[in-house]
What we know:
Layout: E1 8-9, H1 19-28, H2 47-64, E2 70-75, H3 78-90, E3 99-104, H4 107-116, E4 121-127, E5 151-154, E6 156-157, E7 162-163, E8 175-178, E9 195-199, E10 210-215, H5 232-237, H6 247-263, H7 265-286, E11 290-291, E12 303-308, H8 314-323, E13 326-327, E14 338-341, H9 348-364
Parallel strand pairs: 1-13, 3-4, 3-5, 5-8, 8-9
Antiparallel strand pairs: 2-10, 6-7, 9-10, 11-12, 12-14
Helix pairs in contact: 1-6, 2-6, 3-4, 6-7, 7-9
Pyridoxal-5'-phosphate is lined by residues 13, 78-80, 108, 154, 158, 178, 180-181, 199, 202.
Amino acid sequence: MTFDRRIFNFAAGPATLPEAVLKQAADEMLNWQGLGTSVMEISHRSKEFMAVYEETLQDLRSLMNIPDTYEILLLQGGGLGQNAAIPMNLMPLAKNSPKADFIVTGIWSEKSFKEAQKYGTANLAASSAAEKFNTIPARSTWQLSQDAAYVHYCANETIGGVEFPDIPDVGNTPLVADISSNILSKKMDINKCAVWFAGAQKNIGPSGVTIVIVRRDLIGHSMGITPTIWDWAVQAKTQSMINTPPTFSIYMAGLGFKWLLKQGGVQEIEKRNQEKANLLYNFIDQSSLYGNDVTKKYRSRMNVTFFLKDENLNAEFLAQTNAAGLVALRGHKAAGGMRASIYNAMPLEGVKALVEFMCDFERRA
Ligand SMILES: *Cc1c(COP(=O)(O)O)cnc(C)c1O
């Protein structure tokens, strides 16, 4: 299938980006800031790039309201890299031997839990595996340890479409939040977690840069085996430039932050995200063809999973949506069914077009 126009792209990540951001990048591609070269071709230590870098951090700080008690690191290796980096940087803070607690609510937090086992004791404090990851275990059932260095959870499970409506309270133990797929989608009180991390490719820009927001007092306790590039203390001291950073991804993330500021920031985008998600879930709930099994209060505003009650129609649904320019709706292979990822950059019109199509498809089915 080829198109002569931009389509509505519901991919989970890398995901759709604001058209204005892509246009600006295209306009600046051959001659950035009158330097006669693209931003990709200049030194990361040049004053021009450093200015972009500083502004990008400043914009993120202001969008998320990040206090000065937190460091922002721009790293490589993605969310998955942090699954290793976090235990290596934090587990030594445990009272006894290296240890952390995990709340497993889907495939991403399960991966984090498994990776951490390489570096110390990973305690499975709660899991919704028995409920097919369609819900979040009640806070009162969590078996938190007394001697864990931190508690890890995934704020939005991208594959299952399960999202924490609030930040859980785990007392004084530092809380680590994987916000790879809902960063900047809604207001988050930064002080409620000690570490926040996210790859850029879902809700910010292209892949290649990973944002780690970490409370400064937790920096400087890493295991001896920690790779230098993932040692938060080293990266904090060198402005995340112990080696060459992903300059183009950082520049694009910066354009994404400017775009979001122009939209009215997180407060405004949260309203739009709520409206988009409501539109889709309300339609699914009244339909006799489509369904969603996630506990209502835990449904993701970013990744709307759904299935066709007659699975024989799956192939036809995907073929016809593709032809209509509504693409990448096939669910993750681990979950099956369908998934519409409706991140910040997905306009309301895209969700309206999808609902209209789904309604029409149901009528014809
Ligand atoms: C995509 C994703 C990851 C993995 O991110 P990478 O940057 O691809 O390593 C981790 N956690 C969540 C919740 C995700 O959605």
